[in-house]
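Exam review. A common question shows you a sequence with its structure tokens and asks you to describe the fold in words. Practice with the pair below. Do the first one on your own.
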Amino acid sequence: MIAVLALLLTASPQVSHRRVMTPDGVALAVYRYQRPGVTSAQPPVLLVPELGFSRAAWDFEGRGLARWLVERGFTVYVAELRGQGKAGPGLSLERLAGDLPIVLDALKLPLVDLVVQGWAGSVLLASNRGDARVRRVVALNTPLLAEPPSALAEAFLEDGGRFSTLASSPAGAEIFQQLFALWSLFPAGTDRAFLSTGTRDLSRPVAAQLLAWMRQGDLPLESGSVVSGLTAWSKPTLLLLGLADGFASPELCAVWRERSNGAVRLRTFSRVETKEDFSHLSMLLGTHAPAVVFPLIADFFAAEAP
């Protein structure tokens, strides 16, 4: 029996794909990762990428958090919402926020743990704070506040958030590095390859909306705003901050802990302690992420309820 279990845990996970249609006719993409014959006692984990990122943020060239969690017995789903990966077009952040309950309805799961990142994570959590199906959350550089962006981020968003333009020149690749991969350590070529194959252009409406959000300090939603929604957040949450993040400043994220009435725990990473401060991308695919970031996520989901 022990030999059989060992064989199952070393087998490659099965990855299945399905389309989920929204009421307004947009196709979302959902991927399921599971080892054959292995049933997890933990709730499934649903991973949702940042704006402009695809499933590759969680599973790039056979590595990343999705496969890492599956190797440790979790069942994992990755959802590409409108404007992400192979999903249909995204024309507003409010519409993207409404995609999360649609995916949960389609999966028919009574309980899930959720991992989100960045500005997409802020919108999803603030808009769906009352969804009883979400048990625990890990948020990676997910801002509560917003402020006028850096000149690089402003120029990128004013140009429509076109990752394809960044990928087409050495100067563009350097801008991507400054925004998403500053001071990062990657397996050779990861950042350049991810820019070319793991990103997708933001639509001009979404880029403009994100830029306005950064300039105005908050994003209005159908019920309240991002600031009011995250301030009212009550689910157990682990906020992981990469201190070298050039796209979602850790200062804008850290304040969430102070405003959450104890729901949000905070963990930052020091180069002295972990050999890397981590950026927006290296939190997911950096050389040290599997040893430093990923175990914190698994332990948080596996811990007994307080």
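Now try the second one, then compare your answer with the model answer below.
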Amino acid sequence: MSDFDSEKLKTLLPMVIEAATKAGRAIMEIYEQADLGIAQKEDKTPVTAADYAAHRIILERLSEIKPTYPTLSEESESIPYAERSKWQTYWLIDPLDGTREFIKRNGEFTVNIALIHAHEPVLGVVYAPALGILYEAAKGLGARRHDRDGQIHPMHTRKTPTLPVIAGSRSHAGPHLSELLERIGEHEFISMGSALKTCMVAEGRADLYPRLGLTSEWDTAAAQCVLEEAGGQLTDIHGRHLRYNTKESLLNPHFLAFGDPEQDWTQFCPSE
């Protein structure tokens, strides 16, 4: 795994948590309004006023943290690979992960902030403002869940039980997922939006989150750090750990987020 000063990460975590919670407050202010400011991006995906408000707040707060690292956000203008390939360390941000869930007003959306170093997430914060839950982790420092009442709980994945719990996307299911579930056999299935699925695996409430469809690097990085620090793994369907900023495209391969590293889920995967 990548080397990064653990004392530096310990110092950064509270500042990143503050950035995420401040962005979450801005999101909730818009969430409670009748008009969510919904528009459509060039790729036909929805975007709202909350996406942009959270983006501005996070970038402003991260710019105050020293040393200053480059930032890559879903709502940033496109940054050519020739430029970002030179980055050793940078912030990777999804200001509002689960925009469709936000529009549906079901509460299953998150603010995702990750610090990437040497192509791996070394710090991750995932905040679900409507649920009042925040997940945070940093390399070598473990993973924790912060509850609405202020309690903080260390998180650990679990061994795969006889009846595994599979977490799946509420808005992005498809035939590949149906095929995988059929191959796995008897299981319990939970639908959930955004990065919350990976975090459910991290806290031992689910055993596997298979994503056999399109995602981007800002969708997974923060939660990957949380999951790995809780004892789990996030790999492609061939068992290789997801890495960041290694190619022109920011799209992820199909992947598996799972809690028990001794369980081989790749055997059930259909071809991409």
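Model answer, second protein: The two ends are 27 Å apart (CA to CA). The mean pLDDT is 95. Full marks require stating both points clearly.
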